[in-house]
# Entry
Amino acid sequence: MSGELTNARKKLATVPSLLKQKKAMPAVQAAYDAVLIMLKGGLMKAEREEFQELIDSTVHILNSDKKLREDYPLIINYAPGQEKALMETLREILQELQKKVSDGAQQLLAAMAKRKADQLDKGQALLDEDNVSEAQKIFNSLIREFKDDTELRAEIADKFIKSGLYNEALEYLEEALKNDPNAIFLYNRIGIVLRKMKDFASAEKYYLRALKINQKDEYLYFNTGRLYYDWKKWNKMAIAAEKALAINPGFAEAEKMLKFAQKKMG
# Structure
């Protein structure tokens, strides 16, 4: 038990330092853990009195911390022998601090989402004005800010696709794919862009790479078939449609695709 008591002393000793670093939650958690160790341990009278003095000092330090008082305005009460009541109070403080952390995180996420949406709208407005270079500056700045957001790159690419700017869209999609090589939706989007650019061979390569990752997506097979329609590869188009129907027999568009391909093949 001596090792655990030493650990408890160390935890109490860290409280002032943690509070100075404005780490209220770890400080309260350290105090809570130390009290729990004390309650679980079979302490001699002298040891118990020592710990009660340490705990009393720690409680005073917690009550004196201005930031903690802002987050939890109630005074923490403690008297020797009331360790269980103190633990309940510390648990309540931890819950309150966790709630504030969660609320703060939600507010931060909401603010980030709003900024992202505002900048995307600003970039779209520039694209609508055919001011492509300025739109790219807005989008590139946004990407630097949210550098790990694969969906953002894809969303930006979609704006260029809708504007008929396929080369620009392809650049954003390929960058996104570097970040997330297993994102099937990116292969699909790249395939669509390359198909619109009439680079059918390259589009096929991307679709086939996606199908190696996931062979259970009927829409992926359908889009591959759509490529073969533009490419006039009727046999491959029929095979793609058949595979889509094998996954989803009720896929009406795939059935139409298959019949069309069969008709073309005679």
